Every structure is written in C-alpha cells, then in structure tokens.
Amino acid sequence: MRKVPDNRAWWLVLPVLLLVALSALVPLMTVVNYSVQDIFGPGNAYFVGTEWFRDVLRDERLQESLLRQFGFSAAVLAIEIPLGIGVALMMPRSGVKASLCLILLAIPLLIPWNVVGTIWQIFARGDIGLFGWGLNELGLDYNYTGNPMDAWLTVLLMDVWHWTPLVALLCYSGLRAIPDAFYQAAEIDRASRWAVFRYIQLPRLRNVLVIAVLLRFMDSFMIYTEPFVLTGGGPGSSTTFLSQTLTTLAVGQFDLGRAAAFSLVYFLIVLLVSWLFFTAITHMDRDR
Amino acid sequence: MLDWMNWTPPVAIFFASIVAILMAMTVWEIVSPCTERKGFLPIATTRGDRLFIGLLSAAYIHLAFLAVSEVSLWIALAVSVLWLLILLRWG
Amino acid sequence: MRKESRSRGIGITIFIVLLLTPIYWLVNMSFKTNREILSGLTLWPREFTLDNYVVIFTDPSWYSGYINSMIYVLMNMAITLTVALPAAYAFSRYRFLGDKHLFFWLLSNRMAPPAVFLLPFFQLYSSIGLFDTHIAVALAHCLFNVPLAVWILEGFMSGVPREYDEMAYIDGYSFPRFFVKIFMPMIGSGIGVTAFFIFMFSWVELLLARTLTSVDAQPIAAIMTRTIGASGIDWGVLAAAGVLTILPGVLVVWFVRNHVARGFALGRV
Fold first, then answer.
1. How far is CA C112 from the centre of its chain?
2. Would residue A1 count as lying in a domain?
3. Which of A166, A7, A214, A21 is nearest to C151 (CA)?
C-alpha cells in the first residue's frame, strides 16, 4: 500500500506507546537495575557491577537449560511445520466440512495452557490415562514421571498436539488465497501433484510459513506452563526449560540479582532472533 | 513510590545515554532525512537500522567478553563503540 | 482426482480424531466417579455422574475463579482494542518518523518471555496498590496482546484501499466520525478476529495471572494448579474444571469461524 508521510500519525500511536511503556519499559529498567546489584531489601542494596552476568554466563546449570531449550525449539519446528503443511493440504477447500475442520482444529489452541498440561498429565499416565496405558499394553516400558527420555518426548508430543493446528490453520489460510485459475492452468498442463505443490502452493505459503516459524519459535522458546504442570521440570531436570529455570530463581529462591541478569541474557537472545525473523518478513513484504 | 526500582547511578547513566542517542538520531533525521542504502551488510538499511544493529551487537560483544575473559569491560566498550561507528559509516 | 480427495479426507479425519482423543479422555473422566477412575480403565463412564460439575457450580472458591478470569479477560479486550485500533490505522496508512522501529519494538514485547517481566510486574503492581486486582492482570496482559492486536489489525486495514478514506474526507467527514462510522464497520471481521485472539491469549495465560493475584482476583487456572498440589488429587473434579475452561473458547470460535484462518495469518494473506 502507498503510505503517506505524516508525522501527526504519532498522535494515533501515542496511547499504545504509553501503555506498552508502562508495562514494558518500566519493568525492563527495573530488571537492569536489579542485575547490577545485590539486593537484600528495599533501600538495602550493594552495587556489584557485572558480577551476576559473569556468574550467569558461566553457570553450567543455566547453560544446560539453554541448550535443552534450543534442542526443544528445534524439534518443535522440525515436526510441527511439515506436519502442519500436510494437514493444511488435506483440508477440504470450502463448505460446511471446511468450517467444521477449522473449529475442531482450533480447539487445542483455546485450552488454557495449564489445562493442556492437566489433560496430558491424565492422558499419559500408565494407570488412568489411555495413552500411557496403551503404550504399556503394547509392551513398551513407558513412564513419563520416572524416565527422563519419556518425559521429554511426552512434553514434545504435547506441544505438537497443542500447536500443530496453529501451523495448519496458517497454511490453510495461505492456500485459500490461491486463485482457482492457478489450479485449472496446472490441470491443463497435466502438472503432477508434486509440481503443483512445489511451484504453485509453496511459493504462496512463504509468507504464512515465516509467521508460523516466528510464532512457534518464540512461543516454544518461552514455554513454561505446560511442562510445569505435566512434569514439574523433572525427572531430574530433563524438562526444565529456560522460563522455568528463571521463574525458580526469581520467585522460588528470590535470587533477584542473578534472576535479573539471566532475564536480560534471555531477552537479548529472543530480541536477536525475533529481529532476524522480522527483517525477513518485512523484506518479503517489499519483494511481493 | 519508585523505591522498588532500586536505581543506581551507572544504570541511570546507561539509560540516559540511550535516550540521548535516540534524541540525537531524531534531530539528525529531521535536519537531514536519510535514505536506505546498501553497505557491507547483506540488507539495505537506514541509519536507524544500523544504530539498532550496532547496539544489539554491542550487547553481545559485552556478554562475550564477560563469558570468556577476565579483561576489563572498558575494552569491550571501546570495541563496541568502534564497531558502532564502522556500522554507521559503512554498514 | 476423486481417489485423491478420498485419501485426503481419510487423512484429515485421522488427524482430527487423534487431536480430539486427549480431550475426549478429559470429558470422559469428568463424568466418572473417582472410584471408577482409579479402579481401572474404562472407555466411557459406567457410573455416569454429574457430581463433579455440581461441586464446581456450588463451591464459591471454584466458580469465582471463572468469574475472575472472565472479568480480567473482558477488561483486557476493552483496553487493548481501544488503544490498538488508532495505532494500527496509523501504521497501515502513514509513514512517520521511526515507524518501523516502533513497530518492531512493539512486536518484541509480544516475543518477550513473560517470565522476564514477572518480578518487576509483581513489584510494580504491589507498589501502586493494584496487587490482586483484576485490572492489574488486564494491564499485564496488554504487554503481549496490544502488539498482537496492532499486528493483526494492521494486516486487515492494509487490505482496505486508501481511496475510501479520501472519499470520506471529500464528503466532509471528520477523522473520528469517519473512523467510527465508515472504517470500523468495513473491517468488522478483522476486529472480530482480533477480539477473538485477545480473548484467547488472555484466557490461556497463567504465569502472570497467577503471580499478580492471591485471593480476590485469582483466575480459574491458578485454582486448578493449587488443587493439583493437594494430597490425593480429586481427578474427577479436576477434569470437570478443565472441561469448563475449554467451553468459552469453543463458543467464541464459532462466531469467527469464517475469518479465523485469516486472523491466524495476522490478516496477511
């Protein structure tokens, strides 16, 4: 769209600016303040410089949780994106069936995150859950509360269950935007199914896929509630991701300085990755 | 009411300098509006983009110094400022 | 082509059945007695009971959780839409000093992990006396909902050609009147979808809602986690509470079903 240069538009943005400044800038400044001090109480704090940062960056427990987090986010993207595209391709193009599919697909997205945890907590149990019971009946030794690998896979499966519909809905809306004429032309050319996907559908999906990757990366990177309810981060620390490590530091141990330094490192990682994605999106918008 | 924010002078100076940089950039933009151009970075950028890239990489430079070495952070700061200037000029 | 569409239909049916199985299990369990739940696996309730739901609807410590959640979600919707509509209009129509950077800064807040803001939020709202109030949670949720709303609305607004705006100004409409009388009805579906997303993200969030409340404004999600901690979990009531948290979302998605796909793409297709 052709945009008109006009700096008075600032007045329209001002309310958002003030509101988000209150809820983002003030806390951010506070976190920076906390991160350079050792705080014992209001008005009782010592300046320690960058000690907390040095501490956090060299803390093995935090490094492990960071690695686990990257591994988890990578696995989430590797499964959910192709699966979501596949589901979107299988969905009916229009009519009552399409509406029904949309609503059913959207249901997992509308469940409060702790209830998602509860559902899987029940569903995966060996004694009262269909999933855990079924696996045990098949002769697999499955126990997500005792075996770290099982716990990790259960959290991953839960995330796939929870969020693949989002990817599918995004891709579906991308596919819907392709004019029928494109398909007719392909049929006249006797294009194969794969050629249709590769040269007609995939290019049109590019925009929504970037949004899907962006949202899925960000949200899986800050996952907290679901594994917290499902496994409590255990067994051991096999499913303790970054947000939970941070929450334990800040609220559990009240280790304010370390938690603040950790928050800032966490935030910087997210900021870098989201900037890369955002730049990619805006440059694509321009190419279009 | 602001007790809980635990302000300390170094952090206050830090945020004040960020605000100062932003205001200077705004004035500069009004006096001589900049156009997008392509430098050694892989994408076309405006002055503001290059400032942001510079500040973000400065943060990472500081973290890297903290993570792997014991040398004074003033060196990291010097490196960052130099990098920022290079970016603004040729980026 | 017919054979292909049949296999597609089978594929999507299998996926949706798998998707709904865990939910069916929750619903199934909410109609069972605890004795039946713990005595073995049954695929449907043998001793069908509504007792679990009766517990929730008669115990104030349970049902007040739903009321609290509803209150702050609605407050958040009102605040978010009020500030996001004009801002999205500005982003979609005008170029102004620092617009791109401002937009990115807003988005970065959607991407910031709530855990990072936990501690300062707690201190901030305690110090201004808003701790354990609905408005505190509503304001805190603006952190991620406002950027999202601006993003979606901007996508929808960019789809409306500028010519409409210019025609209205020629006809002598003032900006506020044009915005409310002409523009907002034109992007009505976009506003509906945005409201749906605001509802969804505020409704499902737990970390901030739980940290900023203790008794008076405690959301249903927090009440549920508290029950999990108790010795001897009441699985039936827990399942019933879970089912009741799913219902509002399903009701809301019904209203926006035709536009929801476009909304998920942030209005950008």
1. 18
2. no
3. A214
Q: Which token pair is A258?
A: 């370390």
Q: Find, in chain A, the residue whose alpha carbon is nearest to that of C250.
A: A107
Put simply, the answer to whether B30 touches C98 (Cβ < 8 Å) is no
Burial A67-105 (b: 16+ CB within 10 A, else e): ebbeebbebbbebbbeebbbbbbbbbeeeeebeebbbbb
Residue A99 located in a structural domain: yes
C260 in Cβ contact with C196 (< 8 Å): yes
Residue C21 lies in a domain: no
Joined together, the tokens standing for residue C117 give: 């803001």
Q: What total of structural domains would you count in chain C? A: 1
Percentage helix, strand, coil, to 5, in chain A? 75, 5, 20
Tally of domains in chain A: 1
Question: How confident is the model over A144-178, as pLDDT tens digits?
Answer: 888 888 888 999 999 999 999 989 988 888 888 78
| ipTM (interface pTM) | 0.87
Report how many domains make up chain B: 1
Domain encompassing residue B67: 3-90
- B50 to chain C: nearest residue by CA? C101
Q: Does residue A246 contact residue B10 with C-beta atoms inside 8 Å?
A: no
Q: pLDDT tens across C12-34, in order?
A: 889 999 999 999 988 988 898 88
Chunked mean pLDDT (size 10), chain A, 288 residues: 79 89 84 84 75 85 86 93 92 81 87 87 83 84 82 91 90 81 84 84 80 84 84 77 81 80 88 82 64
Domain that holds residue C138: 60-264
**Domain of A200: which CATH number?**
1.10.3720.10
Q: Which of B7, B52, B53 to mutate to test the interface with C (most CBs of C within 10 A)?
A: B52
How many C-beta atoms surround the C-beta of residue C229 within 10 A?
A: 7
Residue span of the structural domain in which A48 resides: 7-287
Q: Is there a contact between B59 and A268 if contact means CB atoms under 8 Å apart?
A: yes
Kindly state whether residue A248 falls inside one of the protein's structural domains: yes
Locus of tokens 């979808």: C193
B: neighbours with 3+ CB pairs under 8 Å? A, C
Nearest-CA distance from A5 to chain B in Å?
12
How many other CB atoms are found less than 10 A from the CB of residue C178?
18
Interface test with chain B among C96, C105, C107, C127, by most B beta carbons within 10 Å:
C127
Assign residue C228 the CATH number of its domain: 1.10.3720.10
Contact A283 B43 (CB under 8 A): yes
B10 touches chain A (CB under 8 A): yes
